[in-house]
Amino acid sequence: MSSELSPIDTAKFVAAKQACEYVESGMKVGLGTGSTAAWLVQCLGEMVREEGLKIRGVPTSSRTAKLARDVGIEVITLDEARWLDVTIDGADEYDDDLCLIKGGGGAHLQEKVVATASDRMIVIADASKKVDTLGAFPLPIEVLQFGAGITENLVIETLRSMDVLGHGVSQRMAGTEPFITDEGNFIFDLHLKRIGNPRQLSAMLNQIPGVVENGLFIDICDVVIVGQANGHVEVRDITNDTREVVRFDVRDDDNIFADLSD
Known about the structure:
Order of helices and strands: HEHEHEHEEEHEEHEEEEHEEEEE
Helix content: 25-40%
Shape: globular
Strand content: 25-35%
């Protein structure tokens, strides 16, 4: 990477930096998965190494666990933590009600388990993730390998009665092989274009035998932190019904991610 942050990297960086304000020594912190969450882990790692921050992190994927250890964050399991003070993660889409689509990285099952075991969930994102209506980003569902073809047929049948524009279903691949989650399951991506009733869709999908979990996060996110390329950050707290704009001065030496490949 260049010594200068690109516009999209700047947006992710400032969102991650602002999210660090919610983390204090002694906390147990859920660590999300994905490109934006990776910036957060790097920021927290810097605070651990240089400021003496003492936290224990519960990663939502094997990729995040490795990164957290590499930057000096103590990693524990969710069972060891039992409950978390905060989870900070990215999102593929979010709307005005802070409903989310997650799972672009294939970790939404662990992400949802960790987020719901937290006092608070904070989403960090760039401005492109904001949508009026969810659904442009494909909705992932994690399904058992056993009977996956039957599960797919049941999903297609269910979508016909849902308030969605598209009904396409595709299996996620990793090259020429099926993508396998950390739990050993498949991912199907639902190409819905528009989701009219996310709450109803989530409930119906999770009633299908073989569906382990879907990527709709409803009534889980409490705060969204949106970074901009100009260094501005908007913080929206849905619990307190507040909005705040913060300005960061991003310098070349702020780029702690020079060794972090995309």
